[in-house]
Amino acid sequence: MTVRVIDRLMRYSDQSCDAAVDTEAASALQAEHMFGGMEGVVAAKPVRKPRADSVRNRQRVLEAAKLVFAAGGASGSLEAVARQAGVGIGTLYRHFPTRESLFEAVYRREVEQLVDLAEGLAAELPPLEALQCWMHANVEFVATKKGMSAALAVAIHAASDLTAYSMDRLGRALTTLLRRAVAEGVIRDDIGPEDILRMIVGLCYTHDKPGWQVKVHRLVDVFADGMRRA
Hints:
Elements: H1 2-35, H2 52-72, H3 78-85, H4 89-95, H5 99-124, H6 127-147, H7 149-158, H8 161-183, H9 193-205, H10 212-227
């Protein structure tokens, strides 16, 4: 159930982005239809061609990069990312001119998806189950980050606000889930968001053998059981 809920909410996040793009494109076409015949009255501004395909290509590249780098680390080639996304290498470079810019974009996208996921889980699941699902999703986020660690170090050095940005966004999302669970009386009240984030990062970075995520997911469940109020 955990995996199904997370996958559904993640798909909803991507669909929301596509829907926003389609709405913008439709509005532009409607404006062109309404004012196209008024050249003699007022000079209509040229309507930019809708960029829905470009936005979707960017999203496909980011999702493909997540899969490639999580599986093969930062050594995964950009050509492999382009193939996974179903786009040409030129399209990839138009959106992300450097490897570091791609890594940073993947990182920021993952952070925002975790923030959106926290809101969706809070609306759909009981407090402890929502918190546990979010922790499992965070393991997958760290797996992607771990695969890009060397290049991310360069990106973080270039954008010094990247670490602060992610800790603030993830901390706020996690605090909402924790407060809800504490208010319902299902978990202890002496655990903060930093405790959980450090626990997940620590577990992920102390396991390196193939299949390490399975062990970490099991340990996350053990930790969640220990959070229950006696």
